[in-house]
User: What shape does this take?
Amino acid sequence: MTELIELETERLRLRQWIESDREPFARLSADPKVMEFYPNILDRAASDAMVDRLQALISDRGWGFWAVELKADKQFIGYVGLHVPTANLPCSPCVEIGWRLALPYWGKGYASEAARDVLQVGFDRLNLLEIVSFTATINRRSYTLMKRLGMTREAETFEHPSVPVGHPLRKHYLYRLSRDKWQLDR
Assistant: This one.
């Protein structure tokens, strides 16, 4: 049986998904501001299907996009974690770090706090040599966080194959962080 990895930071718990996460995740996945840099918002069925996939991936691997809750009140606020993208990207095969938090939790340092611990798990426990992240070139909030995490942007942009041709979100930046650089920066 696969050992499930769960994390705790000063203010957050990153854990496997539970049934009560579905409703708040559906709300944040239907929020136009949260989903501004995704091709479309998710209806309840698509949101639940995503939770099912994320649960299954964590069950299979022991890690993935973990549900994030505040330790103080056990409030679900979104997800942060690691994922193996299925799209054929310039960095494939790879492991990405990603996040999606509900709007009331933006600007409080939660994504940075969780992502730093996720990087530690990726490099120290999973022995990854590199972790990548990518976002639409117009998503300043995400790529600013990637920079804060010590990630380096590739010079060339790429067109994300899962985003329709001609869509304003198709052009993406790719950021990378090697284990060696991460260890030096700690």
